[in-house]
Design goal:
heterodimer, B: mainly alpha
Chain lengths: 122, 187
């Protein structure tokens, strides 16, 4: 403390600086005028709408649906071809001539044939 | 609308309200602390224009970061911390500019600069004291100015600088010793 007192004795501790006249009177207004507006300072948060939230899921679902229909369409084409082939084969196999020859060699009488035709729909 | 009295609790409440209230609260803060912050900065940088610029930056920084002020410390402590950081940044930048300048003597000694400064009204001994203070490391200079010119308590300085009061007392006494030696050598 003794050394501190020596300085205080010698110099006094008085503030040797001054400011331009009226500086402190206008300081607050000057600082406030220099402050940026809050809107320009803070980043305005973008409002997230429900549509923006579900959009990625909708797009993803649409993509999967598209892929599903494409695959289904491709598979459907193949199946139609095989059905047509099978039908063609059946048409070829069961001709009238084939049925007539089958009936001729089947050793069945008209009564049995009639009976089987009547009961065929049941 | 009249001037708002400084009530820290009310100001903290208003800072969480709409923009009009926030600006009004901040204006009360500026009005209450600008002068003492100015002197703290001025003692470090010596030049009025530099002190004014740093003070403006201090408040702009405080305003733009007002949301991060959670009220854990006093507003004055928070503002002093910003002011100290801004001042040290300025001094560091100034030192870099001077070290890049081959003719660094061009700026002259602190005493010469103050002699030609229209806003320095001290005598030769006061100029010599400023010269002596300028030789101190920045941290010691901060502590000395806060204690000697701004008459702050060690507890307040401790909160601002995050240094223990014991270390601050030691720092102040070392600074005083160096200043005494400066004066002894000058005699």
């Amino acid at each position: 403390m003794e050394k501190e007192d020596k300085i205080l004795d010698k110099v006094g501790g008085r503030r040797p600086f001054s400011v331009p006249e009226g500086y402190f009177d206008n300081l607050t207004d000057g600082i406030m005028a220099a402050l940026p507006q809050e809107d320009s300072v803070k980043q305005i948060p973008v409002a997230v709408t429900p549509w923006m939230r579900i959009k990625p899921y909708i797009y993803m679902a649409a993509t999967f649906a598209g892929m599903f229909f494409c695959l289904r369409f491709a598979a459907g084409l193949g199946r139609n071809e095989s059905v047509q082939t099978a039908q063609a084969e059946e048409t070829t196999i069961y001709t009238d001539e084939y049925i007539d020859s089958f009936l001729e060699t089947a050793m069945i009488d008209d009564c049995t044939l009639y009976y089987s035709l009547v009961n065929a729909g049941n | 609308m009249g001037l708002m009295a400084y009530d820290e609790r009310r100001i903290l409440e208003m800072l969480r309200e709409d923009e009009v209230s926030r600006r009004r609260a901040f204006e009360a803060i500026v009005r209450n602390f600008s002068e003492q912050l100015y002197w703290q900065i001025r003692h470090m940088v010596l030049d009025h224009d530099d002190a004014n610029d740093i003070l403006q930056n201090t408040f702009i920084k405080a305003w733009t970061n007002i949301d991060s002020f959670m009220g854990y410390s006093r507003i004055s402590t928070w503002l002093y911390r910003i002011a100290v950081n801004e001042t040290l940044t300025f001094l560091g930048r100034q030192k870099n500019v001077l070290s890049l300048d081959d003719e660094s003597d061009e700026t002259g000694s602190v005493s010469d600069r103050l002699e030609s400064d229209p806003y320095f009204d001290g005598d030769a001994t006061e100029r010599q004291l400023q010269e002596a203070i300028a030789t101190l490391p920045e941290k010691q200079r901060l502590v000395f100015n806060m204690k000697y010119f701004n008459e702050m308590k060690y507890e307040e300085i401790s909160e601002i600088l995050g240094t223990s009061t014991g270390a601050l007392k030691a720092s102040f006494h070392i600074a005083v010793k160096k200043i005494e030696e400066f004066f002894n050598n000058a005699d």
